Amino acid sequence: MSYFIGLECSKCGKAFDPDKVQTVCDRCGKPLLARYDLDAVGKIIDRGSFRGREPSMWRYRELLPVRDERNIVSLGEGYTPLVRAEKLGEKVGVRDLWIKDEAQIPTGTFKARGLSAAVSKAKELGIKCMAIPSAGNAGGALAAYGARAGMEVYVFMPEDAPPVNKVECWVTGAKVYLVKGLISDAGRIVSAGAKERGWFDVSTLREPYRLEGKKTMGFEVAEQFNWALPDIIIYPTGGGTGIIGMWKAFSELQELGWIGERRPRMISVQSTGCAPIVKAFKEGAEESEMWEGASTIASGLRVPKALGDFLILRAIRESRGEAVAVDDEEMLEDTKLMAKEEGIFPCPEGAATLSALKHLVEESSVDKNDRVVLFNTGSGLKYTELFPLKLPVLDPKEEINYQKL
């Protein structure tokens, strides 16, 4: 089933027992990374082994941490479409443009991947109660998977989180609390409550397994392109598990011999209202500073400081990538542009990748012949309050002038 063999600190390398509940490194406080017996994996399967498997992220079960398949908690997450965006590519000047559309995943965002993995492993380890600080979508995913697993779930989110996220957490049975402040403030409440109430803290990178679900995006991009990676991946970055996870996936695939040494340039996108990774990248820093007064319509990007910031920055630099900040107005315009040109209604975080691509093309950082993948990390249907409408109303009892329609 799984060739998961251990955990090690991403910073100091200390090893941890994978059969016990783990959080972060007890020596340096940094995230733990799952490791696999890749030599053994390579002896029993090859990259053609996935043909005919279920169209979900669990098709890569040998490289995921759940040992007993009976513990898998799934709603069919993963293996999302990789859509060729020809019209959009013509608009921005990129001939080989693609959109990885995570909007079609359960709960409507890529967060389902990480929470499926985390809840499944928690079930295997005997955890009964979980808590999460969330800008919205991660809370919704934990509530859904927790409900399916029969676990007790607590969600703490900022007061101004999208209304749909509050509803989806509540309707799936989670105990939902709103917090005056940002996700970092909610995180402090969860951390303190873990000691007082005994719940397991599922904050981003404060447990090792959400990352493993997210890395499957990298496996899928490789498989969907017939194991030839794109030139550039543009990804919206809050907590950063997407970039970290994909970079880890590419490393594992290379060690297995399923891809060569060439990797995509990883482009991190943030909001100008909350851009700690962009600032740290441009300043040459190894870690980011806390971003004061974080503000953006893209709730998933409103993370003042990511625990795994050094891993995000490492992936960007090792890939010869970049970090780009875009403003809210650009996101709103490009939400409509992506929807109008390709029929994909992205979340503002997903639209931010298109905004970033425009900047990179203008700066000649992207060549017109590059194969570029934009990650739309969720559905715009979760953010409809950003688009207030005043639509004409027709009365069928009155004569309608069709020439004016």
Would you write up a description of this structure?
- With 405 residues, this protein is an alpha/beta fold.
- The chain has a single domain, classed as Rossmann fold (3-Layer(aba) Sandwich).
- The chain has helices at 38-44, 86-92, 111-124, 137-149, 163-171, 183-197, 210-224, 241-256, 276-283, 309-318, 328-342, 348-362; strands at residues 4-9, 15-16, 32-36, 82-84, 96-101, 129-133, 152-158, 175-179, 200-201, 232-236, 265-271, 322-326, 371-376.
- The strands form 3 sheets. It has a 6-stranded mixed β-sheet, sandwiched between helices. It has a 4-stranded parallel β-sheet with strand order 8-7-6-9, sandwiched between helices. A 3-stranded antiparallel β-sheet has the order 2-1-3, with no helix packed on it.
- Helix 4 (137-149) packs parallel to helix 5 and helix 7 (210-224) packs across helix 8 (241-256).
- The mean pLDDT is 96.
Q: How far is the first residue's CA from the last residue's CA?
A: 60 Å
Low-confidence runs of at least 5 consecutive residues: none
Radius of gyration from the CA trace?
21 Å
- Biggest β-sheet description: 6 strands, mixed
The CATH architecture designation is 3-Layer(aba) Sandwich
Spatial sequence of strands, sheet with the most strands = 4-5-13-10-11-12
Q: How many domains in all?
A: 1
Give the overall shape, derived from the CA principal axes: globular
Derived structural class: alpha/beta
Number of helices: 12
Which series of helices and strands comes N to C? EEEHEHEHEHEHEHEHEHEHHEHHE
Q: Compute the number of strand runs.
A: 13
CATH class: Alpha Beta
| Mean residue pLDDT | 96
Question: What name is given to the CATH topology?
Answer: Rossmann fold
Helix fraction, binned, reads 25-40%
Strand-residue fraction? 15-25%
